[in-house]
Amino acid sequence: DTNFYKLMYPVLYPNEIKHYAKENNLDPFLVQALIRQESYFNAFAVSSSKAMGLMQLLPSTADYIAHKDHLPNVSETSLFDPDTNIRLGTHYLAYLKNRFKNNLILVVGSYNGGPGAMEHWANSNSHLQTDPDYFIESIPFPQTQNYVKVVFSHYWNYQALYNP
Predict the structure, then answer these.
(1) How far is residue 64 from each of residues 50, 73, 108, 132, measured CA to CA in Å?
(2) Known catalytic residues?
(3) Relative to the CA of 94, which of 8, 108, 111, 116 has its CA 20 to 30 Å away?
């Protein structure tokens, strides 16, 4: 029964996600999946590393993206605003997507493990292009390896449940 699965994979903040995903050339299902994993839709979530809001942005990352993309400056409390958080988070995802030439494995992995670390892992592993599953299994940081698997699992579930 798909209704049960839709309870497990709700679509929350659909207008903001659709708007900013389109603005940043992202799949809204990927954004939804990432938010589900990062905060489980808790706009007031704060991680142990002080990442904040729906998309769990570090204030330094939010400042960097706001400056880079000529967006208004953000205060830490504004990261709890869903619209602000999704706008900045999708701009950051677009930055990563551009940096990693649309390779979503690297984009998702770098969202968790950092772009520098992901770049290092990608450059030191020849399996990225030939065997993406092997590449994911060889990510040397278990948290990031698991994160990639779980976000893609959510992404595929969102596509299966909501893609017309």
Answers:
(1) 16, 10, 19, 30
(2) 38
(3) 8
List 46's β-bridge partners, or say none. Answer: 52
- For residue 4, the tally of other CB atoms under 10 A from its CB is 8
Expressed in angstroms, the distance from the first to the final Cα of the chain is 17
Per-residue model confidence as pLDDT tens digits over 105-157: 999 999 999 999 999 998 888 777 788 999 999 999 999 999 999 999 999 99
Q: Which two tokens stand for residue 133?
A: 């599953």
The C-alpha torsion from 124 through 126 and 131 to 137, rounded to 10°, is -20
CB 35 within 8 A of CB 13: yes
Q: Which helix (H) or strand (E) holds 72?
A: none
81-111 pLDDT per residue, tens: 999 999 999 999 999 999 999 999 999 999 9
Report how far apart, in Å, the C-alpha atoms of 155 and of each of 20, 62, 106, 150, 159 are. 17, 24, 15, 9, 6
User: Rounded to an integer, what distance in angstroms lies between the CA atom of residue 152 and that of residue 50?
Assistant: 24
